[in-house]
Design goal:
about 260 residues, mainly beta, 23-stranded parallel sheet, two-stranded parallel ribbon
Length: about 260
């Protein structure tokens, strides 16, 4: 399909159990929902080669099951709050939580977010999430990585995470080699037990890491572990503000996994 427009509150669209690919747009929208969208546990893949919008809360909200963005020229703008009940995957292109001049919307993902660029090594087709001032709530993990393109090129394509200024909640935060990441300048809460914060960004290879001058808060009632196995093995200690909101459990930093 080129785009999907559910035009009235009485309208219902039941998606496929497989993959629904949207590769165009109608009046700047790749997805506009003024009715009910039934995700049917399927995947919606956006491959629109343009700046385009997801809009319309509708009776069901913008509730996708699996949502994927996969075109190097795609910039998908959230025009209203977005809910993904399973996983959000960006393989190429960008998801940004706002539209210029219209404010910013909140993003909820019950499963995981993957910024995993799929282009071949050496191709400048990053996978990017821009959070602006939005609230971000992820039940599982945010995982960001890139592709090694050789000693002269570093990591290309990269996974790019721009945390913005809002308050974020994650089960775990995983920044692997090839990630380019800036944490939110607001509060980032890490909620899962066990290995919950891993920072392997190799900042000497055209990738950067910034704590965003924000606050990272660890809140699990069970033990939580920080890992970093990259060349800068103490990267995980680079916090601006750190809060441990724990009673009897511990937070431990390790330089090896397992």
């Amino acid at each position: 399909a080129r785009s999907l427009d559910i035009v009235t509150a009485a309208s219902t669209f039941t998606s496929t159990e497989g993959v629904l690919t949207l590769d165009g747009e109608l009046s700047d929208y790749v997805f506009n929902n003024d009715g009910v969208f039934v995700h049917n546990s399927g995947t919606v893949t956006i491959t629109t080669a343009a700046t385009t919008r997801i809009d319309g809360a509708g009776a069901s909200g913008n509730q996708f099951y699996d949502l994927k963005i996969n075109h190097a020229s795609a910039i998908v703008q959230m025009y209203s709050d977005l809910v993904v009940s399973h996983d959000l995957t960006i393989l190429a292109g960008e998801l940004t939580t706002g539209v210029g001049g219209y404010g910013y919307s909140n993003l909820t993902v019950d499963g995981d977010i993957y910024l995993h660029p799929s282009a071949s090594a050496g191709t400048d087709h990053p996978a990017k999430l821009t959070c602006n001032s939005s609230a971000i709530d992820v039940g599982g993990k945010l995982e960001v990585k890139g592709t090694w393109a050789g000693s002269g090129l570093g990591y290309s394509p990269k996974g790019i995470f721009d945390g913005g200024t809002g308050d974020h909640e994650y089960g775990s935060l995983i920044m692997l080699a090839g990630a380019d990441a800036t944490l939110s300048s607001g509060v980032t809460e890490i909620q899962s037990a066990g290995s919950c914060f891993r920072l392997d960004i190799q900042t000497g290879y055209n990738t950067t890491y910034s704590n965003g001058s924000g606050t990272v808060k660890f809140t699990s009632s069970s033990d939580q572990l920080l890992y970093s196995t990259g060349q800068l093995a103490d990267n995980y200690t680079t916090f601006h503000n750190l809060i441990l909101e724990k009673t009897s459990s511990t937070l431990q930093g390790l330089s090896t996994v397992g």
